[in-house]
TrEMBL record:
Signal peptide: none annotated. GO terms for molecular function: ATP binding; ATP hydrolysis activity. InterPro entries: AAA+_ATPase, ABC_SmlMolc_Importer, ABC_transporter-like_ATP-bd, ABC_transporter-like_CS, P-loop_NTPase. Pfam families: ABC_tran. This is ATP-binding cassette domain-containing protein.
Length: 247
């Protein structure tokens, strides 16, 4: 787990949601009374498949509109301007059919950077991701692990104040997982608030300070990571932390 004293003063945009509800075909898929991200460097969101984890972070990142409830970014409704501060790495990131570096340059230019600035920042981002050697390789030729690192480098190049990550290491080998975890750790230390959806409980223990457990669209337990694993309060969290299947 990150040492809180290592992290820069957290001045990032707090993101919150109130009374968020999403319903489809009469089924309540998301039902969250209140959630705030802003005080912890890394929060892990855990829960079984279909629990609503992706839906929650997409909603908070402004990519999905809730049927009811409000999302707030630093006290305001999500806006185009705010997208520079609130980032999201999708579970299956979309990379353009151009070189690795061009993917990052494009994102930076879209965010308002001039060409020279974008080129310099993109090279810096690839360097931090250990991807300089494949900067000119077409993104579609990269391995799964390299693609994920590139998508992460692109997201971090925009220097978001808060970054939502949807299972960034799913299907990666241990070495690629470690690289992504190092990138997450470095970003968190530099002051980016990270919200990480993961099925990897060891990863949640390694990286997060706070854990949220979701089940059937609700947050059923929220607490310090050590407390969650060592002293879970709800029967569901006890079962989940013990590796049992939540239905
Ligand atoms: N557009 C949609 N229409 C109907 N149901 C949907 C829609 N999008 C998602 N769902 C359902 O909402 C529920 C929550 O989905 P979500 O992707 O948030 O789960 P998750 O916790 O991220 O799961 P996983 O761990 O499998 O990625 C699932 O039951 C899913 O089938």
């Amino acid at each position: 787990m990150l040492d809180r004293t290592d992290t820069k003063a957290l001045s990032a945009t707090p993101v919150s949601g109130d009374n968020l509800k999403i319903e489809r075909s009469g089924r309540l898929l998301l039902d969250v009374e209140r959630i705030v991200f802003g005080g912890d460097a890394v929060t892990a969101i855990l829960g079984p498949n279909g629990a609503g984890k992706s839906m929650l972070i997409k909603t908070l990142a402004g990519l999905q509109k809730p049927d009811r409830g409000d999302v707030s970014w630093n006290g305001s409704t999500p806006s185009r301007d705010g997208y520079r501060k609130v980032g999201m790495l999708l579970q299956h990131p979309v990379l353009f059919r151009r070189s690795a570096i061009a993917n990052v340059i494009y994102a930076l230019k879209q965010a308002g950077h001039g060409t020279r600035d974008a080129q310099a920042l993109a090279h810096e981002a690839l360097d931090h991701a250990g991807l300089s050697a494949i900067a000119d390789t077409s993104a579609r030729l990269l391995s799964g692990g390299e693609k994920q690192r590139l998508a992460m480098a692109r997201a971090l190049a925009l220097k978001p104040e808060i970054l939502f990550l949807d299972e960034p290491t799913a299907s990666l080998d241990p070495a690629s997982t470690l690289r992504i975890e190092e990138m997450i750790g470095a970003a968190a230390k530099a002051g980016t608030i990270i919200v990480l959806v993961t099925h990897d409980m060891a990863q949640a223990r390694r990286l997060s300070e706070r854990v949220l457990l979701m089940h059937r669209g609700r947050i059923i337990e929220a607490g310090r990571t050590a407390d969650f694993f060592d002293r879970p309060k709800t029967p569901e969290a006890r079962a989940f932390a013990a590796g049992e299947i939540l239905l």
